[in-house]
Write a structure and sequence with these properties.
The chain contains three helices and four strands; from the N terminus they run ααβββαβ. The longest helix is centred in the last third of the chain and has 22 residues. The chain has one domain. Strand 2 and strand 3 form a beta hairpin. By secondary structure, it is of the alpha+beta class.
Length: 101
């Protein structure tokens, strides 16, 4: 058996999960042991928003995710052009160390 075959992972994706969940705000918090990313769906003119998904990562996985996102954005922009960033404002504070994406 080749080394490539041994390192393959079989990943299953249910029909429900394949539909995905829309998010237009990500709130990132962290402790000394983990990073938490809450994916939120905010609607214009509605002051209340719901967390649609929460992902908890080790610091090592968070750093790998950051690198993978950076690489994929660069590939996307090389084909489709620069992604224009808009200034997003959040009408509330959750406390603790946070970042928005």
């Amino acid at each position: 058996m080749s080394e490539n075959k041994q390192n393959q992972i079989n990943i299953e994706l249910s029909d429900e999960m394949a539909e995905g969940i829309y998010s237009n705000l990500a709130i990132i918090t962290h402790s000394n042991a983990e990073f938490i990313i809450d994916f939120v769906k905010m609607m214009p003119g509605v002051p209340k928003a719901k967390v649609k998904s929460r992902i908890i990562l080790t610091p090592q996985h968070a750093k790998r995710l950051m690198g993978a996102l950076r690489e994929n954005i660069a590939k996307f922009e090389s084909v489709h052009g620069h992604i224009k960033e808009t200034e997003a404002t959040m009408p509330f504070s959750l406390g603790g160390p946070t970042a928005q994406a």
